[in-house]
Amino acid sequence: MSAISDLFQKGTTVKFKKNDFFISPEKKPQGIYQITEGFVYSYSQSPSHKKRIQTILKKGDIFPIAWTINNNNARRDMYVQALTDGSALTIEKKVFLDYITNSQKAALEVIDVLLMYLSVYVDRVENLEYDTVREKLINRLLSFIQRFGYKRGKTVEINLPLTHKFIAESISVSRENVTRELNALENEKVISFKNHQLIINDSKLLKNNS
């Protein structure tokens, strides 16, 4: 068990429901969390109230790091919301900071977490630079494979509940355009959906389509 996970084992278990807010402009964090079941995501909103999805967090991930380390100076337009029902372990901010201050191993683990989050943000910025909806979509699907994919025989299942709308919000394009491209990939037998679970039938072919 990692040093951080060991610390959270001493915390309090909290249950959450889909769409529950952990953070919003009206709600400050109540502590720092490690997800034990389910998914959580963070996003900001455009002036027209469209979601700009930034990170998707899964079992083992901890949040909110910026609020915890940066003296409460997290972005005021940030939302952190439950994508599914689930649970998490929570500890007080001071307990967490004291622990990583006195444990080199824990501090290095936090650095690894921050680097992972940075990689996710860089991937999102690079995704916005692609010219076509198809390129944006395929590269986002490839990132889902890397972070949430589980190989099942010749296919890869994305262990993440996905809708066309959610995928569209994650790449900042219209749902209609995403649906058109997803339908094309399904017709080409590259992907399929089962109960909102994305299945990559041929990851090599998907990459070659980008």
How would you characterize the overall build of this protein?
The chain is an alpha+beta fold and 210 residues long. It has two domains: 125 residues, Jelly Rolls (Sandwich), CATH 2.60.120.10; 77 residues, Winged helix-like DNA-binding domain superfamily/Winged helix DNA-binding domain (Arc Repressor Mutant, subunit A). It contains eight helices and twelve strands. The protein has a four-stranded antiparallel beta sheet with strand order 1-8-3-6. Strands 2-7-4-5 form a four-stranded antiparallel beta sheet. A hairpin with a 2-residue loop joins strand 11 and strand 12. The longest helix is centred in the middle third of the chain and has 25 residues.
Brief account:
This protein has 210 residues and is an alpha+beta fold.
Major pleated sheet: 4 strands, antiparallel
User: What percent of residues adopt helix (DSSP H or I)?
Assistant: 40-55%
Specify the oligomeric state. single chain
Uncertain segments are none
Question: What's the gyration radius in Å?
Answer: 18 Å
Global shape: globular
Classify the fold: give the CATH topology of the largest domain: Jelly Rolls
Structural domain tally? 2
Distance between the termini: 38 Å
How large is the share of residues in beta strands? 25-35%
Which whole number gives the mean pLDDT?
A: 89
Task: State the CATH architecture of the largest domain.
Answer: Sandwich
Helical stretch count? 8
SSE order, as H and E?
HEEEEEEHEEHHHEEHHEEH
